[in-house]
Amino acid sequence: MPMPVRFRLAPLLLAGVLGIAACGAAAPAPPAPAPTRPAVPAQPAPAPTAEPAAPSPLPSPVPGVLSVDVTQPQGPISRLVYGTNYGPWMGAFLPDVQRQVEAAGFTYLRFPGGDYGDQHDIEPQQIDDFVALCRKLGAEPSISLRLRGGTPAGAAEIVRYTNSTRKYAVRYWSIGNEPTLYSEYDIARFNQEWRAIAQAARAVDPGITIVGPDIHQLDAQGTIRDPQGRFTMREFLEQFLRANGDLVDIVAVHRYPFPPGPSDGDPTTDQLRANSPEWDAIIPNLRALVRAAAGRDLPVAVTEVNSNWSATFSGDATPDSHLGAIWWADVLARLIRQRVAIVAQFAMYAPESAGWGMLRAYSTRPAYYVQLLYRRLGTDQVYAASGDPLVSIVAARRKDGALTIMLVNRGADEASLPLRIAGMDSAGAAESWRFDREHKASQIDPVALGPDVRLRLPAESATLLVIPPRP
Q: Rounded to an integer, what distance in angstroms lies between the CA atom of residue 4 and that of residue 216?
C-alpha cells in the first residue's frame, strides 16, 4: 500500500528530444497513490466500454510441458497493458535516458501519478506538456482529477480546457488517488463526492471514459483494510459500485504486495518469487465482485502496480533488483492472460533513493528491459499453458502472422521443457530475445523448432520467441 512521497513543485519541461517534468524529490518517503473530491449537474452517461467476452473453458496444462494452440484464439490483447505512471514530480532526463523512454513503447501514461494530483491543482501548461509527451511517445493519456481539495467546478474546468479549448480529446479520466488511505473519507463521503465530480466532468464531455476508484490495495480476497480499520477493500468496492456503477466505465485497483504493513521489511527472494501467482485469483475475484455489485460486467484495470510500495532499493528482492524485474515480467504475463484492460506500472521514473522506477535520471533499471521484451509480443492472444509452476507463458499472433511466445522462468534454477505448438507448422527456427543476468532484452541465437524441441530457460529469465509464418 504505497504511501505518499512529497515532491517540490516545478513546471513541466518539454525540450529537445523529450522534455520531461521537472521536480526534485524532497522527503525520503515511499511512492504511492492518493485520494479524491466532488460535484455538478448530471448528464447521461455514455455507453460503458465493452467488456471482452470470456473465452471458452480451456484444457488443463500438461505437466512438464509448454503448450501453445494457435487454433484457440483468446481475443485481442489490450494495447493499454504496457502503461506506466508519470507526473510533474519526475526530474528531467539526460538525452540518453530520454531516448530510452522513447524506445520503451509505453502505451498508456497515467498523470500525474501517485498522490500528486490530490495535493496540487494541475496547471494548463502541465496538461499541454503532458499531452505533447504522450503524442511524442504514441501513448494514450489519462488524467486524474483532484478529489481531496478539489471541486466539481474545478474538475469541469480541467476537462473543458483539455478537450474543448485545446481539443486534445483525452479519453481516460479518473478522480482522486487511493481514497482508501484518507482518514477524512468514509465510503459514503467518497461515493458522494466522486459522483459529483464524475457528473461534472461528463457534463463537459459526455464521451469520456471514467476509470476508478483506484483503491490503494486489492489482494485476492479483498480483506485488506483501510489504515483506520473501518472497512475492507472488498466492502469499499461493493459500496462504490452500488452507488456509482452507472458512471464508472472501467474498475481500477492498485496492488503492492510488499511490505504487508508499515513495520514489515523487504520480502525475501523466496517470498517475492512465490507472490506473482496471486494475480490468477485477484482478477477473477474482482470480475465476480464487479458483476455482483454493479449488476453487469465492466472492464478492469490495475492503474498502479509494483512489488513494493516503499522507497526501498538496492536489495536482492527490491523493485530495482533483477528478481524484481522478473516478478514484473511474470505479473504482466498473468494480467495479459486475464485480459485486463489497462495496466500502469508505478512508475516511469524514480529518484536514486527509491527503487520503484523503470528509469532514473542517469540510467535504466532492470524492469525497463522487461518493457522492451513485451514490445515484441503479438496483439492477438492464443491459448498457451505451462506445466511447470515456476514458468509462465503467454502467446500471441502478430499482424504479419508471426507467432510470439513469452516465457518467464522465475525459478532459481534453469528449466528445460518441451514446447508443443498445435495448429501451426513450427519447423524451422524462431528468433529469440532474452532478459536475464547476462542479457538486456537482447537477441540471442535462434531456436531450432520441431516436434521434439526442448527449451532451455535460464534461472530468473524472460525469453521471447518469434516464429515467422510459413512462406
A: 11
pLDDT in tens, 331-377: 999 999 999 999 999 999 998 899 999 999 889 999 999 999 999 99
Q: Can you give the pTM of this predicted structure?
A: 0.89
Report how far residue 407's alpha carbon sits from residue 388's, in angstroms, rounded to the nearest whole number. Answer: 11
Q: In terms of DSSP bridges, do strands 403-409 and 461-467 run parallel, antiparallel, or are they unpaired?
A: antiparallel
The whole-angstrom separation of Cα 394 and Cα 294 is 30
Other C-beta atoms closer than 10 Å to the C-beta of 414 total: 12
Report which of 336, 332, 397 is spatially closest to residue 369, judged by C-alpha positions: 332
CA 387 to chain centre: 26
The answer to whether the beta carbons of residues 86 and 133 sit under 8 Å apart is yes
Sheet hosting strand 380-386, strand order edge to edge: 440-449, 428-435, 461-467, 403-409, 391-397, 380-386, 66-76, 415-422, 454-457
Read off the C-alpha cell for 465: 520467441
Q: Which of 335, 339, 240, 249 is nearest to 289 (CA)?
A: 240
**In which residue are the cell numbers 457534463 written?**
203
CA nearest 110: which of 348, 311, 359, 309? 348
